[in-house]
Amino acid sequence: MKHASRTLIPLCLALILCTVIGCDDDGDNPPEVVSINFISAPTALLANVDSLYEYTVQISGLASGERVDSVYCEIHLPNGQPAIGFSLFDDGSELSWPGHPYASDPSGDIAAHNNKFTRRINARLLANNVTGVYTFAFRAMMGGTEKVRADLNINIQSVSMPYLTQWPQDSVFNECFDPIPMEVRVVRDNIDRVDSLWVDIIETGVGSRISNRIYFDPHNGDTIWHVSFTPNAFSCSNSSPPLYYNLEYEAKTRFGFTANQSQHIHSFLNDFPVLSNPSMPDTIERPTAMGDTDTVKITIHLADCELVGIPGYNGLRFDVSRDDTIHWATANNYILYDDGNLLDDVSGDGIFTTGLRINRRDDLPDNEYYFRFYAIECAAPYDTSLYVMDSMRVIQPPAGMPAISPAENTIGFEVIH
């Protein structure tokens, strides 16, 4: 009996483990759940304007080799009664589907046979003056059987257009102006809602381009919007003639309407960048062992009110000359950044940083390196600030045989930012 009990104990433990953590004979993972993912599915449609709304769904979780035959959208009116539905196609818009009262021909699908099904519909023709909340039931079919279904509530309404009743009239911006509180007011239909509001700084004169986009924040519900307008709104704008500026205010609503107003800028003075306080060691020694490296951190302060707090600026550069101020060398990566990465401590604080990787160089035993720093404006005509100079002595402690001195433009370190 003792022998039998010793045999039963491991069997019982095995059964317990199988119960707790599960026993998988074949090691296969459970099948993924088939689902409908909405790539494009607007839920607020206009019943009084001819607009095409695109619906695109993707079928995911299908087993290898499986493919959905079709996707059909079954529609019910606000009173629950059925309406004419529409099919979505994965045909790359290569086929024609004529005769539908409100769905597009061709489908509007971009790429065929990628399990993404698309159709565009005209909500005004669908609604035919019946407004309210519709039910769209998307049904993915396979072999005549519904594989998966997903429902959406779609609000179809007759909505009047919004308009801006108040917007900033500022047209003169002095150099490094103080923050300007801006307010925009919107009138919209009671059914509608303002989702976002922004101002584009448009450069005009020689072509037109959006120089910057500033988003407002809702202040009182969704009809009053505020923002503090600062010089860095013009971060990479050019104030030199013949360029001019417009401020283009635009609001976008839940039902897809936009409201616009424009304000011409008569004058903008772009502040000139000023560099100061370069920081680097006075003297450093190179490593004595082959393969070893040391890192030197270099920083400099940039004062430019249009660039304050903007980490993407890459126009603060430097040149280097060895043992004189004549043979200047530069490279595409001789740039200092204020992005909070690697050696830079804080993003957007005005202190720009780079790093130098120093290794052993017997051919450069004792050298004085001169650095000149300068900032290039990030818009034409790309004016350059005054140079700021600094220097650093780099010594190679005695190690090995002396080597022939390299060419005058050989620097002897790497930039690592």
Oligomerization status of the protein chains:
single chain
Output the strand order for the largest sheet: 2-8-7-4-5
Please provide the count of β strands.
26
Order of H and E elements: HEEEEEEHEEEEEEEEEEEEEEEEEEEE
| CATH hierarchy: architecture of the largest domain | Sandwich
Q: What is the straight-line distance between the termini?
A: 75 Å
CATH superfamily of the largest domain: Immunoglobulins
Q: Mean pLDDT, rounded to whole units?
A: 87
How would you describe the shape?
elongated
Low-confidence parts lasting 5 or more residues at pLDDT below 50? 1-22
Structure description:
The protein has two helices and 26 strands. The protein has helices at residues 2-21, 123-127; strands at residues 35-40, 44-46, 52-60, 70-76, 82-88, 116-122, 132-142, 145-157, 163-166, 172-173, 180-187, 194-204, 209-215, 217-220, 224-229, 244-253, 258-265, 267-268, 274-279, 283-285, 293-303, 316-322, 351-359, 366-375, 388-395, 414-415. It is elongated, with a radius of gyration of 33 Å. It has three domains: 35-157, Immunoglobulin-like (Sandwich); 163-268, Immunoglobulin-like (Sandwich); 274-415, Immunoglobulin-like, CATH 2.60.40. The longest helix has 20 residues, at 2-21. The model is unreliable at 1-22 (pLDDT under 50). Helices cover 6% and strands 43% of the residues. The strands form seven sheets. Strands 2-8-7-4-5 form a five-stranded mixed beta sheet. The protein has 417 residues and is mainly beta.
